[in-house]
Specification:
The complex is a heterodimer. Chain A contains 13 helices and 12 strands. Chain A is α+β, with helices and mostly antiparallel strands. In chain A, strand 1 and strand 2 form a beta hairpin. In chain A, helix 6 runs antiparallel to helix 7. Chain A is elongated, with a radius of gyration of 76 Å. Chain A starts with a helix and ends with a strand. In chain B, 39% of the residues lie in helices and 14% in strands. Chain B contains 5 helices and 5 strands, in the order βαβαβαβαβα. In chain B, helix 3 links the parallel strand 3 and strand 4. In chain B, helix 2 runs parallel beside helix 3. The radius of gyration of chain B is 15 Å and the shape is globular. Classes of the chains: A alpha+beta, B alpha/beta. At the A-B interface, helix 9 and helix 10 of A face helix 1 of B.
């Protein structure tokens, strides 16, 4: 590099060196010119001294030397040389030297300037270069960073790509699982529906089979086979299989194997298993089969089977699916079986109830007929007995002895009593059986009409007194008439001979009930006997006619009307019977 | 008691109890009616009598009655069936049919009236009580004679 050579060649100006050079050069020039060649004009130019500044680039030194040397040249030309007369010296010599000096000084100055300029340029270039280098480094560094980032991005890209692929795969798996789930749901819904419609239709098992077939997209057919007794019956089919198969005994088929071992079993290629009979209705088309048992009530009730027309290895997933489907089918079958049992039990119960009702109705009808028979047939002989006794009494009264008359009287009495007994028994059974329609009844009206109708309740036979108001009651009019008539008949009957019966009827309100009192002046009833009083066929006195039904009938009717009956009495002081009935608001 | 021509007051007693027939004849005697009324013993015979079928074809021996005393509880066909049959025929629509039964059941009484019975009389509890129905018949006949001379 020339610049480098210049650099190496030039000295860097320093004041001390400049002064030393100035002194040395001026001194040297002065020694040569003024001392050695003081008398001669020598060709040695002053300009040579100036050339030092090309090496030592100090403009101040240059121009100081030029000025000094000019002065020195003037001094020699104008002062020194004229003393030496021998020398003929042209007057222009000084000008010539001055011109020479200025030209050289100017040239050196220009050179120095150029060199400085060059140097500055060089330094600028150097600086630029440095900057460029620095930039280059920066760019390179940034490049490296970019490179790194790019690599990272690329890596991330790859990761994302991978994740995307994984996601895609998972989505596909999910979709497959979803489709699988949907197919299972269809089967489940179908089974549930079958469970709800357990009315014996054969549509449900068939749709179950169809749903089952949907779970196996590659399969050709599905069948549901149930064991009935020692035969197998195809309950339902779906797909390319003949639906009508007669029941057949368990043979050496896959079905039989599954039934026997109660385990899910599969055959990858039926052609390789000549020991197994071909599935029914297949016409030999099916090559692969998968079957699972239906476990019901601790045993194996049947089999569900899936057939494929191509040989195939059944996967563990397919095993799981068919076992799951078999479990669901078993549940439905079990619930169907339980439902059938309940229905059967219900229908048996209903039949029994119907039968019993018919029997009861027959019994009631018989009782009705029996009552009718009693009314018509049993009374006819009594009528005859009574009539013939009367006729005998009339026609043979002159020839009969006293005891003969008495016997005839007894026959007539017995017949009358029997007739009364029949009448009362009929009334009682009627009171028990017949519906009593309840309505508001005015007891006063009822009692008054009875007293008006029957002479036994009128003077002089008896004195019956209605004391005070009797509130209306809620009762059955016919039933209440029966009660009143029996109570009054008793009241007027059980009096000592010779005493006129006197009955006083009054009422009191007791907590929503009306209690009617029938107070008589009769013989009274011993307290010990009172509990027996209202029981059937209980007669407390042999001295009075009666059947022992009257009061039992009163109690039964009173109870059926929501009321009750009772007595307060003492021997010899009369009886106070009471009948309590619901008050009518 | 005045003698009444039996043809004018021709009674048919439909009754299966011989004792009741006996007591009615006895009662007729007691109230002064000729006890020669005709009797059939079951519902089927009664219908045959009215229809003039079989043994009853001869109307001289078996004339149509002017009054019928009908028991309800009869063999073969009940008194109600006889009553229904009679009232279904125009010629017997106005025939006097008195139901004479020991049943005091209100439903029997109501049904008899519904089917067109002229009257409903309860059989007495004693054979001697038949005089009441005999008296009732006598009154019926004589009143109708008086009313339609």
């Amino acid at each position: 590099m020339p610049i480098d050579a210049i650099h190496r060649f030039q000295w860097k100006p320093r004041p001390a060196v400049s002064i030393a050079l100035f002194v040395a050069l001026v001194g040297g020039m002065a020694w040569l010119r003024l001392y050695i060649y003081a008398d001669r004009a020598i060709p040695l130019a002053y300009g040579l001294a100036l050339l030092i500044c090309v090496w030592y680039p100090s403009r101040r030194l240059l121009w100081s030397l030029t000025l000094t040397l000019g002065v020195m040249a003037g001094f020699k030309a104008l002062v020194v040389l004229p003393r030496h007369a021998e020398t003929n010296f042209p007057g222009y010599a000084w000008e010539y030297h001055l011109f020479n000096l200025v030209c050289i000084a100017g040239t050196v100055h220009v050179i120095i300037n150029l060199l400085d300029h060059l140097r500055a340029k060089h330094a600028e270039l150097e600086r630029r270069n440095m900057e460029l280098l620095a930039h280059e480094e920066e760019i390179s560094r940034q490049n490296e960073e970019l490179q790194t980032q790019e690599e990272e991005l690329s890596q991330r890209n790859e990761a994302i790509q991978q994740q995307s692929e994984e996601l895609q795969q998972q989505t596909e798996e999910l979709q497959a699982a979803h489709a699988e789930g949907a197919r299972r749901q269809v089967l489940l819904e179908n089974l549930l529906q079958a469970k709800q419609q357990v009315d014996g239709t054969d549509v449900s098992p068939r749709t179950t089979c169809e749903s089952l077939l949907n779970l196996f997209p590659d399969a050709a057919a599905a069948t549901l086979i149930l064991r009935q007794g020692d035969k197998l019956v195809v309950q339902a089919t779906a797909g390319t299989v003949a639906p009508d198969c007669p029941p057949w005994p368990p043979d050496r088929s896959l079905t039989a194997v599954v039934l026997e071992h109660s385990r899910t079993a599969a055959v990858a290629d039926l052609n390789l298993r000549p020991d197994l009979a071909a599935p029914l209705g297949s016409n030999g088309r099916f090559r692969a089969a998968l079957a699972s048992p239906l476990r019901l009530a601790g045993g194996v009730a049947g089999v569900i089977e899936i057939y494929s027309e191509q040989p195939q290895q059944w996967t563990s997933e397919q095993f799981q699916i068919i076992e799951w489907a078999a479990a669901q089918c078993s549940l439905v079958l079990e619930s169907q079986r339980l439902h059938d049992e309940v229905v059967a039990a219900n229908s048996a119960l209903e039949t029994q109830v119907r039968q019993r009702t018919v029997e009861l109705q027959e019994m009631v009808n018989e009782l009705e007929h029996f009552s009718y028979t009693i009314t018509h047939d049993m009374r006819a002989p009594l009528r005859a007995m009574h009539g013939y006794a009367g006729l005998l009494e009339e026609e043979c009264k002159l020839i009969l002895s006293d005891s003969g008359h008495r016997y005839l009287q007894r026959i007539a009495n017995a017949a009358s009593r029997m007739d009364q007994l029949i009448t009362d028994a009929l009334s009682y059974s009627k009171a028990i059986r017949h519906e009593l329609v309840m309505e508001p009844v005015n007891p006063t009206t009822l009692l008054r009409s009875m007293m008006d109708s029957y002479p036994v309740f009128q003077m002089p036979s008896a004195r019956i007194e209605l004391a005070g108001e009797i509130p209306p009651v809620f009762a059955n009019e016919a039933g209440l008439t029966q009660c009143f008539s029996n109570l009054l008949a008793n009241a007027v009957k059980f009096v000592p001979p010779g005493r006129t019966p006197h009955v006083r009827i009054h009422a009191e309100l007791r907590d929503g009930f009306v209690r009617l009192w029938f107070e008589d002046n009769g013989i009274g009833i011993a307290p010990a006997m009172q509990p027996k009083l209202f029981k059937m066929f209980q007669r407390l006195s042999k001295d009075y006619e009666g059947t022992g039904i009257g009061l039992a009938l009163v109690r039964k009717v009173a109870e059926r009307m929501g009321g009750q009956v009772g007595v307060v009495s003492e021997i010899g002081r009369g009886s106070r019977f009471w009948l309590e009935l619901k008050a009518c608001q | 008691m005045s003698a009444v021509p039996s043809a004018a007051f021709n009674l048919l007693y439909i009754e299966d109890e011989p004792d009741d027939i006996f007591f009615l004849r006895e009662a007729f005697r007691r109230v002064g009616l000729p006890p020669d009324f005709r009797v059939v013993e079951d519902g089927q015979r009664a219908i045959s009598y009215f229809a003039g079928e079989g043994p009853f074809a001869n109307r001289i021996d078996h004339p149509l009655p002017s009054t019928v005393l009908l028991d309800l509880n009869l063999p073969q066909r009940s008194g109600f069936e006889v009553l229904t049959w009679l009232r279904s025929r125009p010629e017997f629509r106005d025939l006097v049919v008195i139901v004479f039964s020991s049943s005091g059941r209100p439903e029997d009484r109501a049904r008899a009236h519904e089917l067109g019975a002229t009257d409903y009389c309860l059989k007495p509890t004693s054979g001697l009580g038949f005089t009441a129905i005999a008296r009732h018949l006598k009154q019926l006949w004589f009143t109708s004679v008086d009313g339609n001379p």
